[in-house]
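Below is our example:

___
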Amino acid sequence: MKNFNLIGRNTSKSLSPYIHNFVFNEMRINANYKAISMKDPSHFKTIIQNIRLGEIGGINITNPYKINVIEYLDKLDQPASIIGAVNCVSLKEGSIYGHNTDWSGFKQMFLSSKINFDDKNIKIIGYGGAALAVKYAFEIMGVKKIEFYNRKNIGFNLLGLLDALDDQSMVINATPYHFIENDLEILEKFKTTKLIWIDLLYTKLSTLKYKKLDKNRYFYGLDMLIYQALASIDIWFRKDISKSVDLNDLKLYLKEVIDA
């Protein structure tokens, strides 16, 4: 049996193991996927060695280590090199490769949801690995102007976000903070403008707030999580396994997991 892992600081509530193990079971792949919480990025040295030895088939990386992991890798594929962040690691011809499937997961989610970004002002909250992957995806789709809002004043100050929101805004929240859920001013801005809000978070809003939102303008990140996971599986097994997965069955299964 091949073993695969999700590595991050707090992974106990991640849906990734459910996604991967569902696919492994449905496709009759003799493999197992488990989430591991790690406090120190230096532990990547041991994990990467275990990949070299074949004890681990591959790993996904989540916050906050998508940039830290790079120093332990031999090579990066082109998207990961440009983005500067890695969320998938594989062994190929004796070398440890870093990949980024977040960007393609976002792009596929974006296109499958038929989100119209014509004449929209793209505003990304955050400047970590996920935010950089979203930036790359938009650039691939032809977007030239992207604004960042971040507490570290990279690009723009987060405090200036509220005043910058208008009918032409498309906001991608690439942070762990649930603005629409927890920030009343942001929620009111969403209700009183025609802006589009995309949360990379895959936890839904509270039922009361979700019912009040225009579902044509609010999107959350479950589909992105699914698509980036399927892309990782394709990389590890060097096959188009994702094309054989019934996405409706997978989403129904995840809904049962989430509602349990």
